[in-house]
Amino acid sequence: MSTSLQCFRPLLRTRLRSPNPKTSIAYLRFYSATEAFASKEIAELDQSSKLTDAKIELYPRLRHHDGIEEFRAAHFLKTFQQLTNGDTLEERDVSVNGRVTSLRSSGAKLLFIDVIQGGQKVQGLCDLARLSQAGINESEFRRFTHQIKRGDIYRIKGLAHKTARGQVSVLATQLPELLSPCLHDLPTRLEDRQSRIRNRHIDLLVNKQPTETLHLRSQLIKHLRQLLEDEEFTEVQTPVLASNAEGAIARPFQTAAAEFPDRHIALRIAPELWLKRLIIGGFDRVFEIGPCFRNEGMALWGDILKPRD
User: Fold this and answer.
1) Strand 241-242 to strand 88-105: parallel, antiparallel, or no bridges (unpaired)?
2) Rounded average pLDDT over 160-170
3) What is the pLDDT of residues 199-249, one digit of tens each?
4) What does the alpha-carbon distance between residue 174 and residue 158 come to, in Å, rounded to a whole number?
């Protein structure tokens, strides 16, 4: 990509001397956008080549090791919370997977790794004194500290440990295993509204509020569903596509099927009539949790729950 861009430089130099400012602006925009795209690809290839040169498999297969208990972050914190401060459980080998969110070093022989999984953060302790028992020398440890970066997904294997300050951690008995590298720099802050909208995955990684909102929505729907099921409602799923959009007064979205190009199909604007047909058909209590599509203005809230009794 970078080589192909070189051919535009002479053209840009000559065209930018043109008296027409619109032409100059158009070429500048094209070159800037293409250059930015190329720089991202170059950075990604550069990071991949570094890992490949270090003989590190970029995307290894997940393997289950005998004798090692695999924990999710929340379960790990709950299970070993009863440890006393400064205590290490030597007789149980554990492992925790997660995305690296922060790295802290204390000298050249101790590295603290914070990994997050499912919204729960677990600390990993990489102490060269402990790792040397597994045959890890200082040069290997130093190479690992230069290789690991924020955004990478790692598996930390070791022993359950509680620090002197009461933080449940994993005391690594071998170097953490790379499961998936992050080939782009992960920002520490993302506050611009447009950037957050265009990069929702980065927004979820960096900011807690959108993640907490999604968890809250999931819990609300779960409890609503349980409440209605306890009242002997039957959950159903009505058609999303139909020949006519019925049940409310709203402008529908129109589309067409490949098999029937001449037949217009509309996305539903309300499940009202379908639920009423089910009641007429013998279902006493029905409900549906699902989306409706109305080709109108934007709204923060919509009807996601339509019970019928």
Assistant:
1) unpaired
2) 92
3) 898 898 888 889 899 999 999 999 999 999 999 999 999 999 988 888 888
4) 7
Which residues, 6+ apart, have CB-to-CB distance to 304 below 8 Å? 221, 289, 290, 291
Q: Where are the alpha helices (DSSP H) in 7-127?
A: 8-15, 21-53, 73-79
Q: pLDDT tens digits, residue range 21-39? A: 444 444 444 444 444 444 5
The answer on pLDDT for 3 being more than 70 is: no
Structure-block tokens of residue 83: 């440890």
Lookup: tokens for 270: 């309300």
pLDDT higher than 90, residue 309: no
Q: Judge whether 74 and 120 are in contact, CB under 8 Å.
A: yes
The C-alpha atoms of residue 109 and residue 275 are separated, in whole angstroms, by 65
Q: What is the DSSP letter of 249?
A: S
CA angle 240, 241, 246 (to 5 degrees): 85
Give the whole-angstrom CA distance, residue 206 versus residue 211: 10
The distance from CA 169 to its chain's CA centroid, rounded to whole angstroms, is 23
Q: What is the Cβ-side half-sphere exposure of residue 231, based on CA atoms within 13 angstroms?
A: 14
Per-residue pLDDT of 63-110, as tens digits, reads 776 678 899 999 999 999 999 998 999 888 999 999 999 999 988 889
Instruction: Name which of 292, 295, 298 is nearest 273 in CA terms.
Output: 292
First to last CA, the chain: 62
21-53 vs 8-15: helix crossing angle, rounded to 10: 160
Residue 291 burial (10 A CB sphere; 0-12, 13-18, 19+)? exposed
**Number of other CB atoms surrounding residue 101 within 10 Å:** 16
